[in-house]
Amino acid sequence: MTSYEEAETEETVTCLHLTFYHPGQDEKMMFRCLNFCRREQVRADDTAKFGRDSSVCRYSLVDTRVSRIQFSLQFYRKLHTSEYGFEIKNLSKKTKLTVNQTELGYLNKIDLPWKCIICFGDYQILAEIQEGEAVDYFETHLHLAEAPILQEKCLPSLQPIPENGISPSFFLSQGKSPTEIDENDL
């Protein structure tokens, strides 16, 4: 038997990729305390906190407009499954937090979708979950965006797209209203 045959089975690790953007990031350097482009292990029973207070928050933002503790992420195992997820909780009494279009007030929490945009103030954070199997810890991988995330990433449109692919706004911009025609007339 060779050594690789006797080795422990390697577990994949759940990784939370977070891409940060703020319009004043070049001048104000509010992300200077974050460790970008290197994965970091977080124990499964730890709560990952984001905010201004570096003595409490694992991820510190250097900005007086950010709450002492802005929000937290908690890793958990979903009931009756082997799947893992994250729960996001707003810990700011003054600033609302939005996850995609869901607004969270103080102490409100929801499950973090596998891909979403978290916003508070002028901050935009793209969160993407890469699934894994490890139970004792997860990893975070922080990135810095050059351009606004809300303009970079297109969230699904809430307006239906007609079968012909022509948007109703096309007709409205030409002063015409859409008319129904039989497909055999085309």
Fraction in beta strands = 25-35%
Query: What is the number of helices?
Result: 4
Sequence of secondary-structure elements: HEHEEEEEEEEEEEHH
Share in helix: under 10%
Number of strands: 12
The coarse overall form would be: globular
**CATH topology annotation of the domain at 15-144:** Tumour Suppressor Smad4
Name the average pLDDT.
84
- Given as residue ranges, the uncertain stretches (5+ residues, pLDDT < 50) are 153-159
Based on secondary structure, the structural category is mainly beta
List the helices and strands and how they pair.
Elements: H1 3-6, E1 15-21, H2 25-28, E2 40-43, E3 47-51, E4 59-60, E5 71-77, E6 84-90, E7 97-99, E8 102-104, E9 109-111, E10 115-120, E11 123-130, E12 137-144, H3 149-152, H4 168-173
Parallel strand pairs: 1-12, 3-4
Antiparallel strand pairs: 1-11, 2-12, 3-5, 5-6, 6-9, 7-8, 7-10, 10-11
Structure commentary:
The chain is mainly β and 186 residues long. The protein has a domain at 15-144: Tumour Suppressor Smad4, CATH 2.60.200.20. It has helices at residues 3-6, 25-28, 149-152, 168-173; strands spanning 15-21, 40-43, 47-51, 59-60, 71-77, 84-90, 97-99, 102-104, 109-111, 115-120, 123-130, 137-144. Strands 2-12-1-11-10-7-8 form a seven-stranded mixed β-sheet, with no helix packed on it. A five-stranded mixed β-sheet has the order 4-3-5-6-9, with no helix packed on it. The chain is globular, with a radius of gyration of 22 Å. The protein starts with a helix and ends in a 13-residue tail after the last helix. Mean pLDDT is 84; it is low at 153-159. One of its GO terms (cellular component) is cytoplasm. InterPro entries: FHA_dom (IPR000253), SMAD_FHA_dom_sf (IPR008984), TIFA (IPR033621). This is TRAF-interacting protein with FHA domain-containing protein A. Keywords: Cytoplasm, Immunity, Innate immunity. Residues 49-121 form the FHA domain.
